[in-house]
Amino acid sequence: MLENNLNNSIITESVKNLLEAYQCGKREFAQLNLENADLSQLDLSGINLSNANLRKAKLVGTKLNNGNLSGANLERADLQCADLRQANLNEANLKKAKLDAANLNAATLIKSNLYSAYMPRIQLFQANLQEAKLGDVELTAANLEECILDKVSLSGARVRKANLKKASLKQAYLYECKLQFSDLTGANLQKADLTKAELDGANLTQTDLRGAEIDDAKQANIELAILGKLDNQIIEHSLHIEFKDGLGKYFTFSQDGNLFAYYNNYRKIVIIDLHSSQEINKINIPREAVVSVAFSSNGQTIYHSFYVNELKLWNPFTGDLISNLKHHSANFTSLVFDSNGKGVGVVGTGEPFELHDIGHETRTLKGYSSGIQTQAYSPNGCFIARSAPDTNGQIELIDKQTGNKIYIFDGHKAAVQSLSFSPDSKLLASKSAEDTKVWQIETRKEIYGYLQSFTSYYPYVAFTDTDNKSHQILVTSDFCGNFERKNVNSSRKNGSDYNFSGDGGYSCEAHIAISADRKVLARRFDEQAVQLWNLETGQELSFSILDSRYSYLMALSSQGKILAARYNQEIALWNLHTKNLICNLTGHTDYIKAIAFSPDDKILASGGWDLTLRLWNVQEHNEIQTLSVPEIVLTLAFHPKEAILASGHHDGTIKIWDINKMEEVHSFKAHQQEIEALAFSPDGKLLASGEGNRGSIIRLWKLKRN
Q: Would you say residue 340 has pLDDT above 60?
């Protein structure tokens, strides 16, 4: 209570100082903290409160006309009946603010956030709300005459009985917007999305609906509206082929445009002839896991890891494996505790690799592809446990003193790849590629077991370039890491019964990027160095980004000379020849989900959670344009021959952008779920799209000019 009183006194003092300064002619109060302040009924005309904190402030009836509140935080502020005529509210945060009956005539609110704001009867005559966020807003009986609402998001908004005469709503997103009995006479809704909008009783006389998506709108009387196609609408789409067994993120076109490959639900790569639309081959992708299991120092936890790191080249017509490229700098092949028994490390050095028994010697072993011959020594010095690939998952328990075989543990589904005794030597943990088991040494019984599932593991697929059309090469990259733990607790004092609970841990997959000429492939796993391969020679190129702030998201320029990598909310550009950082591109305000180079490498496109699609000049290292979008951008793809960019969004929508005009030229609902992958065919006539991890549909779309 005392703290609240102190805060209130500080706020009151701030308001008092502001009023005294204002009365003396001062108008500059940028970045002032007035959270929860009561400024009701005051005359603050012409004041500058840019970037000020007015969260939850009371501004009922306050005069702020001609004021500057750009970038101000007005979240949940009470602005009922406030006078904000001709005020500057660009990029202000008015989320959930109360603005009922407020006067904002001729005010500017470009890119302002009005999500869930309460604004019935608000006056917005000739106001500019271009690219503002108005989702779920209440605008019943509002005056929006001649208001600019281009590219705004009014999804789910309530705009009943509103005056929208001659308002501009070009490319506005009005999904499920409630517009009953609103007056849209002479309004411009070119290319607006009115899907599932409610328009019963709305006046659409001379409303320009050219290029708008109006078919699914409810009760829309469009007899007096302006309909037809726009002269500059250049793209149309139609569904060409659908693959319902496909996994949405894993597909590729061949460079000659004749083949399409995708990974299906049955862990096979399917090859499609695009001329006949027929399947011509299926390739089984074998999985060769390297795993490890270990007890913690107190015996109360079991750790195990799974790791795959393969780059394979296939003949797509025969399914034959051409070559297998391995990189082992990051292999998670064994678990090792530090000297005090508290920390756990995961190491591996390739083939041959080192396998560490906890508290014992290090051994160098071979046999990556056929399984791992492994053995472990009990801490009390009495036993040796060992297994080999040709023993059908059996484990031999050996008396260390005599060398005699004591017992054979049997039951694993695959060759045992790792063994570990508990610190008290009473338990033995064993791990194969398919299952994990724990054995009690005294009773010789299995006391715990479970199967390993790899449902989240899928390979990357891409075709490489070749001059011989009959000798296409398909590349797959298997790269997945998994690290888990199980708690082990004795249920009795003598420890004869054990409970195994919990299933914590983490798993990682690498991000893959391939150059447009299909000659260079980049791959990053967790916080390890970036790996680069020359796909023509099969040689690994020398390059590394070791800073953990660079995430998996990467893109390669068309000839593999520049690598773009996400760096927090920035994008870092690297010169792969000099190994030097070129620059950091800044501007995004939230998580970046997609980056892509244009075919000529002059433009880099990026998009993500901040509902923007940004275009960057790669040579001058600056931003060219920011395009606002109504939904999160998850994937991007440039047209190979024209200045066209496709963006895939969280709501299943694909948008087509004209890069020369810097505007959207087409939009359509492609999937019911989020779109996580897009790719143009080499001739640009087909666009492939795939649903996210929960989906199982890949679609090929025909694109053409009208």
A: no
